[in-house]
Design goal:
The chain is of the alpha+beta class and 324 residues long. 26% of the residues lie in helices and 25% in strands. It has 9 helices and 20 strands. Strand 4 and strand 5 form a beta hairpin. Bound molecules: fe (ii) ion.
Length: 324
């Protein structure tokens, strides 16, 4: 059995003790030493059992000196990757090794709000790995939040909202630039997002995905998803607030995107500030800030746990890899 230490850690925005929320520890901390790739290869079943319980695991104290060692650790874990090129992610990223890429390259002062990776698209990874190569000078934590806990609380506070998004699903509208805009967290060009190089092929891909769209005067593409699930049943029967509503509503702001137009119910009616306020408040309260140390690796269940990025100053290099 692997040594998953059961530490009690303070939440980011709360003095509330973890003890009155759930029996589960969050995140699970696995402290160790030596080669993480070998550890993951030897302890895959134990790691997965710990991940199922905690939703997120932090591996601290192992020897993960560089991106190549991180790539090797992912290979040691042994599950197939979900490639950024094939995804419909909105974020600008760069591959560092075959399985490792930069996390969202939005400017340091930009907060990336809580989300499930790519839940605003029909294709999303099951798990995420993060690796801290360079710890930030100040700020730059990765906030983590259990979406099953959020949903439990939200059902009590806003039962009509939960019932409606569960019944209708939700739609996301995003305006993609003509060329990559690294100044925005939503800056990936429509060519890159859709893996095409002309408008005809872009429209064919959108039609295949059941999106609706319009071209704007500056060459950008405004695309709206079909109705996507906002609640997901996890494998043990728990349900999670699996969507991109908080990040889209709080953060999809740039020269092209208006967060007020980013999300609607499945029937097309706008989701308002009043609709979102309870979910945002609950998620903020239940958030744990992962403050990185160089060499840390985190493994996150994308169906159960939301993540984001706090603003930071100085250098920070956190790399990511997606598991299919
Ligand atoms: Fe993300």
């Amino acid at each position: 059995m692997i040594p998953v230490s059961l530490q009690r850690l303070p939440l980011a925005h709360s003095t509330q003790s973890m003890t009155d929320m759930a029996d589960n520890e969050f995140p699970g901390i696995i402290t160790g030493g030596g080669d993480l790739a070998a550890f993951l290869r030897a302890n895959k079943a134990g790691v997965d059992a710990a991940l199922d319980q905690a939703g997120a695991l932090l591996f601290r104290g192992f020897d993960v000196a560089d991106p190549a060692a991180f790539d090797a650790a992912i290979e040691g874990y042994g599950e197939p990757g979900f490639t950024y090129e094939d995804s419909l992610s909105n974020a600008v990223r760069t591959n560092v090794t075959p399985r490792v890429f930069t996390a969202n390259e939005a400017p340091p002062a930009t907060e990336i709000f809580l989300h499930h990776e790519m839940a605003q698209t029909p294709m999303f990874p099951a798990k995420l790995f993060f690796y801290c190569e360079i710890a930030p000078g100040s700020g730059g934590a990765t906030p983590l939040c259990r979406s099953d806990w959020v949903l439990d609380r939200l059902i009590k506070q806003a039962p009509e909202f939960v019932a409606r998004v569960q019944a209708e699903g939700v739609r996301y509208t995003n305006v993609m630039p003509d060329d990559d805009d690294a100044g925005s967290g939503q800056g990936r060009s429509w060519r890159s997002t859709l893996s095409v190089d002309n408008r005809t092929d872009a429209e064919a891909r959108l039609a295949q995905l059941n999106y609706s769209w319009e071209w704007t005067g500056d060459g950008s593409l405004r695309a709206t998803t079909p109705s996507l699930d906002a609640v997901r049943v996890l494998k043990d029967g728990r349900r999670s607030f699996f969507n991109q509503l908080i990040a889209a509503f709080r953060g999809w702001a740039d020269s092209r995107n208006d967060p007020g137009r980013a999300i609607t119910f499945g029937d097309g009616e706008a989701i308002t500030q009043a609709d979102m306020a309870p979910a945002i408040a609950i998620a903020d309260e239940l958030t744990f800030d992962l403050n990185w140390q160089a060499g840390d690796v985190a493994l996150i269940d994308n169906f159960a746990v939301m993540h984001g990025r706090r603003p930071f100053e100085g250098k920070r290099r956190v790399l990511a890899s997606l598991i299919a």
